[in-house]
Amino acid sequence: MTIRHAESKDHSWLKENEVYVSEEVLKAKIASKEIFVAEEENILIGWLRYGLFWDNIPFMNMIYLLDGFRGNRNGRKLAQYWENEMREKGYKSLLTTSQSNEDAQHFYRSLGFIEIGGFKYLDDPYEIIFHKKI
């Protein structure tokens, strides 16, 4: 698996698969290098999108692998790649969240993230906030 920053050539694939952000946000995230894509044999298989919480703490907004590419450590490799890049940029900690009914919370814990709180938003399940020192 190869991991790299998303490029403009990846826009249409991301637009088709990344349903949680608008096209304008997607373009801005690609331009600001806040999306990483994973590929196998030159085929895109997943992505990681992040931003900066309080403008100074990297916050993983989304990590996603297509069906058939989960469960074989690809997600772990993608998250670790992001973590290493954030460390190289001088950041000291990371944040992410997961709803309490999602299996992702176990994945984040396995990466060394610890639960530091949470909140309830409207009718959504409880959102768990995770932190990791790097």
Q: What features would you describe in this structure?
A:
This protein has 134 residues and is an alpha+beta fold. The protein has a single domain (2-133), classed as Aminopeptidase (3-Layer(aba) Sandwich), CATH 3.40.630. The protein is 28% helix and 37% strand. It contains four helices and seven strands. The protein has helices at 11-17, 23-31, 74-88, 104-110; strands at 2-5, 35-40, 43-53, 57-65, 93-99, 114-119, 127-133. Strands 1-2-3-4-5-7-6 form a seven-stranded mixed beta sheet, with helices on one face. 23% of the residues are buried. The mean pLDDT is 96.
Short description:
The chain is an alpha+beta fold. It is built from four helices and seven strands, in the order βααβββαβαββ.
Strand order of the largest sheet: 1-2-3-4-5-7-6
Instruction: Please tell me how large the radius of gyration is.
Output: 15 Å
Task: Give the count of structural domains.
Answer: 1
Q: Which overall shape is indicated by the principal axes computed on the Cα atoms?
A: globular
> Between the first and last Cα atoms, what is the distance in angstroms?
24 Å
Biggest pleated-sheet summary:
7 strands, mixed
Q: What pattern of helices and strands is seen along the backbone?
A: EHHEEEHEHEE
Helix content range of the residues, please?
A: 25-40%
CATH topology: the name is Aminopeptidase
Mean pLDDT: 96
Query: Which ranges are low-confidence, i.e. pLDDT below 50, for 5 or more consecutive residues?
Result: none
Work out the helix count. Answer: 4
- Give me the CATH superfamily: Gcn5-related N-acetyltransferase (GNAT)
**Class derived from helix and strand content:** alpha+beta
Judging by the overall fold, what is the CATH architecture?
Answer: 3-Layer(aba) Sandwich
Question: In what range is the share of β-strand residues?
Answer: 35-45%
The beta-strand count equals: 7
Query: What is the CATH class?
Result: Alpha Beta
